[in-house]
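User: Hey, quick favor. My workstation is busy. Could you predict this chain's structure for me?
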Amino acid sequence: LTEELTAKHMYTLRSQRKKAGLAHSTINHEIYLVSGALDWLADTQEVGVPNIRWKKLTLLPFKKKRHASREQLKEIYSAIHDPLYQDMAALLMQTGARPSEIRMLRWSQFSENEGTIRIERTKVEGSKHEEATLQLTELCINVLKRRYRNRRTDDWESEYVFQSKHARNQPVSTLHSIQSAINKVG
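Assistant: No problem, here it is.
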């Protein structure tokens, strides 16, 4: 089978992965994985492998802007009209945590006495960094204390800091309001 593999197969795979919305870096990792596996087969198993120019298959990584100025952050915050999402944005901006980490934040992860939150780092599973403790700013502590004071204590009481308005004991499912504000500000 390895001898039947062609560059066209790899270009087709790359195209399908792009259409699926994967990041260029993820697609490149897959290309390197296939290339490495074929090299290993050629070296250790004496299997014939195709002569593919792997460098030509790789994609340029997206050039994402990874930070915003203080003024841009203020504009983004002002463009969010829902208080729930304003609170989420404040925590995102002040902690540097991933959106999913803030969206899924549970009350048990917040220590008011220590002024910290414990974040479960799902993207680094199996490493010594599976959990991080983030020191909170006064603004973040005040946001979390206010949210705790004002949380629902009826049938809709939730373990999540950012409770969905549509499902019991579930976190908000999207961050569209925040992303829309970011897009609006540019």
